[in-house]
Each structure stands twice: as C-alpha cells, then as structure tokens.
Amino acid sequence: MDTAAPHAIEANGITLACRRWGPADAPPLLLLHCRGADGADWAGIAERLAAPPRPRRVYAPDLRGHGHSDWPGGYSAETMCEDVRALLAALGLDSADVVGHSLGGLVAYLLAQRHPATVRRLVLEDVCAPVPLDPPRPPAERPDGELPFDWAMVRATDRQRNAPDPVWWDHMDRITMPTLVIGGGPTSLIPQDQVARLAELIPDARLVTVDAGHLVHETRPEEFLAVVEEFLDE
Asked: Residues 40, 68: contact at Cβ < 8 Å?
C-alpha cells in the first residue's frame, strides 16, 4: 500500500501530482477534488476505501492549477477532463470508478460524456446541472498572499460557471454507466434543485441527499462512505 505522498505523473503535456492508496491489484477508484483543494482533501475517505475487507486501489490527483500539479496558466473543465483521461492511461488503467466533488464532479461527468469506456461507475457529489448563472458571478478579487492554487484557474472556471457550454447539457444522455448523484441538502451553497436536475438529465441516475452542506464527504464521512460503498459494490 502506498503512502499518501503525491507522485509526479506526466499526462497531457503537464505534470500531475497523484496520491495512491490500497493494493496495486485492487479495483481502481479515482477521486477528483473540488476547486481550491487538492488530492489530499480525500485522504480520510481514500484510506477507508482502500482498506479491507473490500479494498480498492484509490487514486487522488491534484487537478491542473491546484496543489503540487503544474499551474500552466490555461484552464478549462474540458482540459482538466483530458488531463484525467491521460492520467488514467499513464497509470495503465483502461477504466475506473470515478467520484467527483463540485468542480471535480464537472470534470468527472465530462469524462463520462467524452470517454465513457473509461468510467465504470460514476459518483457526483453536490454537482449542479450546467445552467448559466443569472445574474452572473462577478469577478472575484484575489486574496493577498500565496495561494495553494492558481488564481487564473478561479477566473477561468468562474467564466465557465457563468456560461457553461450548451454541449455539456446536450451530451448528458451519453452518460450511460451507473451513476449516483449525492446532494448536500438545504445548507449547501449549491441550489439543490440544480443537483436534482442533473440527476434527471443523466439516464437512470440515482439521487441521494445527505444533509451535510456542500462538503458532504468531509462533514458526514460515515454517511457518505455508506452510500458510496453500497453503490460501488453493486
């Protein structure tokens, strides 16, 4: 079993940092973090998912512009998706179960749309449907001091949140693998009607609400794990 120290992996023309847990021959599981976090955000969850009696080989990369991965200055959800596809190839994986939180969930469902053969089962944690924001989110002011992520990434992802590509909506019917959508309930900063709408757009997706706010896996880890493990074990 690897430690949670990040490994550097070349993928899609950049270097991605990726943490690994669990036996190398166990079923692979990829965890994608929210905006502003990194793969270490999943450490507690990953350790549990990698443990007996049903261990998994868990991978948690830092998305581009985050943490120890490269900060190349060019950012979009589509590019992050292609980074993840290239990462899976670099790891020698044809497919994996994929869990994505918030921005990581957006990247995960784009992966499922664009490269469905790479995603065995899909879990989307508190992710909204790609609906344009009205009114749009105003430009955020950069905080002072060093940040653990590239501020250019924040600006780029805000632009895409304000005006998502209509193709994201149109291609939801391409997500045909078993899908679980987890909503954070009324205290989440994500409108839960949009989370429910996402579940409606994806064929045969299942919607479960865990009243934990936006950080479901951090605030209610036991409930999150119970729901996710049952789904992955089906």
From this structure: no
Q: Where are the beta strands (DSSP E) in the chain?
A: 7-11, 14-21, 28-32, 57-61, 96-101, 119-125, 179-183, 206-209
User: At a CB cut-off of 8 Å and minimum separation 6, what does 84 contact?
Assistant: 30, 32, 61, 63, 107, 108, 111
User: What is the reported pTM?
Assistant: 0.97
**DSSP 3-state of 66:** strand
pLDDT digits (tens, 9 = 90+) for 27-62: 999 999 999 999 999 999 999 999 999 999 999 999
Domain boundaries, given as residue ranges, for the chain: 7-233
Largest CA distance in the chain: 49
Domain 7-233 indexed as CATH 3.40.50.1820: yes
**Cis status, amide bond into 135, omega within 30 of 0:** yes
Q: pLDDT per residue over 64-102, tens digit each?
A: 999 999 999 999 999 999 999 999 999 999 999 999 999
Q: What is the dihedral of CA 151, 152, 158, 161, to 10 degrees?
A: -130
Alpha carbon distance 123, 65 (integer Å): 23
Handedness of CA 150, 156, 161, 162 (dihedral sign): positive
**Could you give the CA distance from residue 70 to residue 66 in angstroms, rounded to a whole number?**
7
User: At which residue do the structure tokens 């868990």 appear?
Assistant: 58
